Amino acid sequence: MHDALRRLDLNLLVTLDALLVELNVTRAAQRLHLAQPTVSVQLARLRELLDDPLLLPGPRGMRPTTRAEALRTPLRQALEALHLAIAPAQPFDPASASQTWRLAATDYGASTLLLPALASIRSAAPATRLAILELQPAALVRQAELGEIDMALHIAEQAPPELRQRSLFVERYVLVGRIDHPRLKRKLTLKQFCSLEQVIVSPDGGGFYGPTDAALAEQGLARQVVLSVPHFMLLAAVLASSDLVAMVPQRLVAGDTRLKVVEAPLPVRGFEMLMLWPERVHRDPGHRWLREVIAGYTRGPKQTPHL
To answer: HTH lysR-type domain location, by residue (predicted)?
Structure first.
């Protein structure tokens, strides 16, 4: 093993990591701030040392061989461990920081957590940048390991155990309609609730069944869901301009003067909202600062973060 390590230049491993992320020699060269011919020469050297082609031509760039795919995660972990080993610990100064943070969230998470914290982040760290990406639950771990995202806001029920987590709050559902909705002026019976025409948010697209329907089904009942929309923000606009109603997470409609919020005539199980992040940024001072700022804008029980 030591003979193999002595034959390897650390720069070759850095190049291999970039190639496995980009799957494109030109983009890897740009990522490394090197000339494309230099990266091509290094790839040839890697192929010779590892006795494997590593990257093969594909329909959309290059595709890794089985050996290269097996190297992807341990190589990234080894390089990150080496970086942590040699990097001096530096206190984080938000006023002079210039990081770009990439956060994955639904429109609900962005509206209830990131939007309230945005002014504080911009004021304290004006040279930083924040990219909010659409949450892709099935891809969270891969995106976090590859450095495509630094944090995600997601529900506990679907949180991958591979990521660090912090509980932010527990959300509850309320019944919402336009402010002067004629059917919401008095307390509803369960029968009246089921007779209302309702909207549901279906992030995956086109669904008409959710937690409220599950709660009703336990009692042998069903409601009238006549509209399915993909985003909570669209939902609010629909409710404000029609006689449709919806069961909505309470934080999403807090303070919206267009809407009337009432208690539903049946209990519906809510959800716990989590902050998720990969091990690679767990001890990063800037990331810790960002986590604390966002967590500071939650109302409700918070757990001590895993340190």
So the answer is: 8-65
